[in-house]
Every structure is written in C-alpha cells, then in structure tokens.
Amino acid sequence: MNALTQVAGYWMDLTGIFAFAMSGAFVAVRKNFGVFGVLLLAEGAGLGGGLFRDLVIGVVPVAFTDCGYYLMPVAAALVVFFSSRVHRHSGVLAVIDVCDTAALALFGVTGAVKALGHDFSWPSAVALGVASAVGGGILSSVLAMEVPSSLRWEQDLYVLPAVTGAGSAILLDAFGVLNGVTAPCAAVPAFGLGLLATRHRWRTPRARIWRNPFSGMRHQPAQARTASTADSERTQLAGPYNERRQWVATTSSRVRPAKVREG
Amino acid sequence: MNALTQVAGYWMDLTGIFAFAMSGAFVAVRKNFGVFGVLLLAEGAGLGGGLFRDLVIGVVPVAFTDCGYYLMPVAAALVVFFSSRVHRHSGVLAVIDVCDTAALALFGVTGAVKALGHDFSWPSAVALGVASAVGGGILSSVLAMEVPSSLRWEQDLYVLPAVTGAGSAILLDAFGVLNGVTAPCAAVPAFGLGLLATRHRWRTPRARIWRNPFSGMRHQPAQARTASTADSERTQLAGPYNERRQWVATTSSRVRPAKVREG
Amino acid sequence: MNALTQVAGYWMDLTGIFAFAMSGAFVAVRKNFGVFGVLLLAEGAGLGGGLFRDLVIGVVPVAFTDCGYYLMPVAAALVVFFSSRVHRHSGVLAVIDVCDTAALALFGVTGAVKALGHDFSWPSAVALGVASAVGGGILSSVLAMEVPSSLRWEQDLYVLPAVTGAGSAILLDAFGVLNGVTAPCAAVPAFGLGLLATRHRWRTPRARIWRNPFSGMRHQPAQARTASTADSERTQLAGPYNERRQWVATTSSRVRPAKVREG
C-alpha cells in the first residue's frame, strides 16, 4: 500500500512538473524565444521551486538526480515547440490552467511534507511549501522579463492553493495523521479552493492605500497605465491566444469600473 | 556580557531585516502588487541576502530556522499594507532610508563575521558580507522588474556602507580584537559613511567612457533617455511619494548639467 | 604531467571567467551603471554559472574559496571601467566574442566533469555543464533587466557550444578515456562548432507556430515589433559599438525577408 502511494505521489509530482513546464514553455513561445529558450524556461518553471526547496533543506536537488524529473519538462517543451495545434485550441490552455492549480496545491503539500521530514518548524515548512510551489513560475517569469503572476493583484489567486495545501499538510501533521495516504488528500481542499478562485475570478487584495480614495494615491492614471500596458501587452498576443485575450479583456472590464470608483 | 551582546546583535539583525523588508514592501505597493506580492517582496528583501550567504557557506539558512527572522518581514509587510499613513508621511521614508543604511552596515559586518567563523579567507568574507547586505535589495528589485539600486550610478552609494562594514570587521579580526563587543562597533564607521553619502548626495563613479567627452560615447541622448525614463518612472509616483520625488528632481537637476558638460 | 594539466586547466578556467566577466562589465557600462554595478555584473557573469553548479553539487563554491576566481572578474571590471580604448576598438569585442565561445565550450566540459566526479548521472552532468556555462550570462542579464541572450532566437547559438562540450566530456567518460589530458580536448569540437555558428550566423530554431504561416500567428507585427525594439535598443548604442551595430543590422536584414515569407 505504501509503495503504491509512493508511486502515485511520484506520478502526481511528474504531472505537476509537466503542467508547470507547459506554462513556462508557453511563455517562451509567446516571447518568441529559440528552442533552447523554450527548454530552459520549461526546466526552470517545472523544477525551479523544488530546486530552491532542496537547496534550502540542504539535500542534493531531486531535479538533478531523478531522471523523470528533468525529462518531464523536456517533453513539455517539445510538445509546445513542435505542435502548433496545442496553441490553437483554447481548451488546452484551460486544461493547463487547471493542472497548474492542481500542481500548486500538490507542490505546497509535498514541499511542506519534505520540510517537516527534515525537522523544520511548521512556519518554515509552510514557507518552503509555498516557495516550492510558486518558485518555478517566478523563475521563468524573471527569465522572460515579466512580472511574476504570483505578485500581481490582477492575476488569479496563484499563491492561495499553495498556502492552503501547505497549511493542510501541517494540520494533518499536528494531529499526527500525516502519512502516504492522507498527504495527497491534503491537496484536495487546496485544489478546490484554487478552482473556485479561478471560476469566480477572485483577486488578491491590494494595499489599503490603493483602495482608499483619500489616502493620497490620487494620481492613479500613471500607475493604472502601467497595469493597462501589461494588459495590452497580453492583448497583443495573436491568433492562438485569442480566447485568453478575450478572457483578459472581460476581466479588465470587470475590474476597471471598480478602479474608477476608487480613484 | 557575551549573552547580552548576542541578544543585542540578534535585535540589531531583526531591526535591519525590518528596515529592508519595509523597503521591499514599499516597492511592492508602489508597483500595485497584491497582498502576496507585498509579503513575498518583504521576505525577499529582508532575508534574501542572508539566505544567499548561508547557502554559500553551506549551513541551513537562518531565514528558515529562526522564527524571528521570517516573522519580521511579515510584520513590515502588514504595516505597509494596511497603514496608508505610513505612505503619507515623508518622515517615514527618511527613517527607513536611515535604517536601510544602518542595516547595510550591520549586514556587511555580520556577513563577514559569519564567513570568517566558517574559515573563509578575508576577501571571500568581504564578498559574502557585501552580498548578504545588498542581496535582499537586488532580489526584490529583480522580482519587481526594476534595475537594482545598488547597480545604478545615480542612486546613493548603496554598496559603500556594506563594503566599509565588512572591511572594518576584517581589520578587527586581523588585529585579533574581533569579539561580541567590537563587532557591532565595526558597523559604526560604515553607518557614518553611509549617512554622509546620503547627506551630501555622493554618487557612484561611472565608467571612464561616460565621463570622457572624446571617448566615443557622443550620442549620449539615447542612453541619457534611458536614465531619465527611470527618473520619470519614479516621478510618476503619486501623492505619498511627493517628498521623495522632489528629492529625485533636485538630484537630477544637479546631475544633468554635468552630463551636458560631458557630452 | 597531471600537475601540468591541472595548472593548464586552472588557467583555462581563469581565461574563461575573464572573458565572461568582460561581457558582463560591458553590459554594465552600456547600461550606464556605477562602479559597483560594473563590479557586481562582472562577478555575476564570471562566477554565476560555477556558483550554481557548486550549490547544486553541494560543495562550498570555488568562486568564494579560490582567490584567482574572484579576482579575475575584478581585473576585467577595472579594464572595462577605466579604459575607454577597450570600447573603441571593435577588435576587442570580436576577441571577447571568441573568448566567450571558448569559455562556453570549456565551462560545459568542466561542469560536466565535476558533476561526473560527484556521482551524478550523465544527463544531470550535461545539464549541470550547460547550466554552469550559461548561468553567468543569464544572471548578469537578469540583473541588468535584459532578456538573456541564451534564450533569444535572433542571437547566436549561445547554448550549442556548452551542450557540445558537456556531451563530448560524457562520451569520453563513457569510453573510459576521460582524464586530465583528454578533458580539455573535449572542448575543441565545441569551440569549433561555436565559431562556425558565429561565422555563418546560425540562428536557434523557433517554435513551429512562428514558422508555419497557417498556424494562427498571423498578426506577427506586434511580436515582430518587440524583436525590432530589442534590435533598435542595441542599435542605440553609440560610438564604440558601431561595428557590432552594423553587424546586428546586417543580421536583421538577412533575417527579416525570411520573416516576411513566413507571415
């Protein structure tokens, strides 16, 4: 049973890495990078978070020792690189979004479990879980010179599934019921919350100074322009990203009135 | 006595982390990031340098083991996130600037002392001291897609206090008088020098090719435009950053004639 | 004989670091950074890759223990900082380009050899060789807020010499003939290939969606504009970079018709 769970956990890890790597490869293709750029961004997005976690814990990074871990991003990069069909179907992007959410939840759990296994305290374990979940996306964004999605308020709640997953694992451990069977289950509420956040377009709260009309941030246009530049940058995406563009446009139009009310 | 010094050193560390984290959180709010962005940038700015130092030395990063270290940036992030008053008072920014300078000096000292304690040679110790002092600021700038202040010549002498602090610690060690009492004292001249640099607006020297009118960099406008774009980006900051904006404007007007003379 | 090889290997390492550091320092001067910025970028470009490799392997980074390693970038930074002659002679840039290619090949080999010596499998060794070769350039580009050359398709084949070098070292090891004499020889084909790529302006292949006219990326101008902005950014470089600018211009004009044919 335990061996079975381990195998299941291993394949869930690989799926998460594949999903992250697909996102990284999409960014690279969107930015018109070469084949090595697509490979590097896929590897960075898929393995960056776990690499950081392992370096902090002080073990040789699994990203460089387990052959499945570093071949998964190669596969994702090849799919994104050679298939033009994968860019055309908006369903693919939706599936990747869902897989990304699942991967965030899962990596939050596995990161926290690994940290607990190496005698870290529970807040450190939560921090490491979150870092291993969002680290890959941040690394690939930085390499592609984009502001990471996990920092931007107008993006989906990227960090929430990771925090929830890591927190659930900590709770299970506190009640002494953290084992190979319950650990994957800890990812389920985090995944559900992430899906809810995507579905209902929950946004990350911004600093109070941006929400309070009398707080002094009156000359918002300059900043708003920055935000809308980022949007229009995304909107410049042609053809295959049409669906997503429309989605962004819808979001913006939902968000903007609120912004005007604030200003 | 020694225990007292350790406690004092610990609290000085926390103060430095708090100051760095405030700077990081301010950047995040200025960039209109969400709450997770503010948290991540505060943690990155406060702990990034020490994390790098500990990874190089090969110990488990204190940023993930000591609860005070990772809670301090959370506190800084919450203050910057929820208080709009902290953005309105220019005095707050001035205090943070002074605390930043102190933190740079202090981190330079503690980084060098920790490296010496792990049998690094003195140039490596200086390098690690400087890296642990400026690392956090560089990390948060990279995450926010800004050119790090420590690299830009038109910023204050960011690196100088760190270098002086690390150098003083090395000198004390060379004379065999480095201990719990003298180590914090090594930060004092570095802090003083940093304050002097801020007060008199000392700038980092630029490469000779930028200063020599006959060296071939004649078509400076293109590059100067880049610099002024960075300025105007800062000037776009509304309301609460007014004072700082004015300060930047003053600086620019002092600097620009010299640039014209060069061209 | 073996001692002689080690000395030769050490000096080849230093030459490679010097070449990388020169590139980093050039970027810093072009971006109008201060003296600390030039130093930091030179150190980052020269040592970043090896630092990453050593952190992953789990040894104390040689970049912080061997005095020759961290003094070489300082020397490179001082040359670039103080000499305006080095910027004026296009021959210098050409020499640095050749040295860069040699360094990529060499670092690919040494990275793979070091990884093999620490019991990594051969794909991990290739990955670590490539990472230690391109890591420095990526770090300095990220610090300077530029998209790393190794990712961009319109740049030379940056990654190819590193991959070839690491692959040759792996092949030699597989045949059991990897030793102090053959290891440097493994860099020779990689170096030759790199020179060929530069000479004939080989470009990295892009994703299929960019090459297939019916794949949906029809509204290319938006993306093409991004590419040409990057070009014009480079073209804005004045005086000393004239030769290189012309070179870029030639390249662009060779590339553009192909792009039109694609669209």
From TrEMBL, chains A, B, C:
Organism: Nonomuraea helvata
Subcellular location: Cell membrane
Taxonomy of the source species: Bacteria, Bacillati, Actinomycetota, Actinomycetes, Streptosporangiales
This protein's UniProt keywords: Cell membrane, Membrane, Transmembrane, Transmembrane helix
Family: Belongs to the UPF0126 family.
Residue spans crossing the bilayer: 6-26, 33-52, 58-82, 94-113, 125-145, 181-198
Residue ranges occupied by any Glycine transporter domain in the UniProt entry: 10-82, 98-172
Name listed for the protein in its UniProt record: Trimeric intracellular cation channel family protein
Domain of life of the organism encoding this protein: Bacteria
Keyword Membrane part of the UniProt annotation: yes
Major location (coarse): membrane
Membrane topology: Multi-pass membrane protein
A Pfam family: Gly_transporter
PANTHER family assigned: INNER MEMBRANE PROTEIN (PTHR30506), UPF0126 INNER MEMBRANE PROTEIN YADS-RELATED (PTHR30506:SF3)
